[in-house]
Predict the structure of Bacteriorhodopsin.
Amino acid sequence: MKELFLADMMTIPKDDPVAFTFFTGYMAMFAASVFFFFERQSVSDKWKTSLLVSGLITMIAAVHYYYMRDYYAATGQNPTALRYIDWTLTVPLMCVEFYLLTKAAGAKVSLLWKLIAASVLMLVAGYIGEAFVPLNADGTAAAGATNHSVMWGVISTIGYIYILYTAWFGEVKALGDSSGNPQVIKGIKILAWFVLVGWAIYPIGYMCMPGGWLNTGLGWTSSNVDLFYNIADAINKIGFGLVIYSVAKSDSATAKA
Ligand SMILES: *C/C=C(C)/C=C/C=C(C)/C=C/C1=C(C)CCCC1(C)C
């Protein structure tokens, strides 16, 4: 049994792009964590917590990818529960990054809680939408599947739009501007683009599940759910961290000069 499992893991990546992204995703998250943890020492004190949080985000993801990768290799199914446990920990930590970036300009903890509340709404609704979609015994969409996924998808989008709005036009944007720090202003702008473009990949994956619009409309299957999620995670978790890293590096250099 154990040998068979290992053999499966060795053969799947070459003909299965989803498995491939689970394996590369795992290694990329792992390497990014090592990078962020080690680079902490190269930035000034006020940026060390931000880099620690970047490393925690990719490290939490790496551990979940380790398990999701094996779950997928062994069953060929979407590791939905593990996926949402990962996001429930990492998305609030991304909100912490926004808070830490704007803290020097006077961000209050209430900003952090509002962003976290919006992410919880987004993720709980998304989980109900995916995990409890009505399915037939053979895994195809049962009656009501489309209604279920659309309803919970819309509720989830409310949380997403709140975060998007806060980053582009709301408190995060205003605090960034009032910081008077060009590096912070630029960093917030790039992160806002990540939330607009990078995070928008997730609803595309969501709509590939049985009953989802891209499933019924274009015939995209549930393995595409993980393909989109894996690509989006690599872009967003590592990319977010690198933006923070570059803000921290350039601001530390300015402070020294
Ligand atoms: C590291 C993980 C991240 C940044 C995850 C982000 C997840 C989303 C932005 C998910 C959004 C969803 C919608 C906006 C509607 C459909 C359901 C979701 C949960 C896929």
Notes: Residues 87, 90-91, 122-123, 126, 129, 153, 156-157, 160, 199, 202-203, 206, 233, 236-237 surround retinal (CB under 6 Å). The mean pLDDT is 93. The first helix runs from residue 2 to 15.
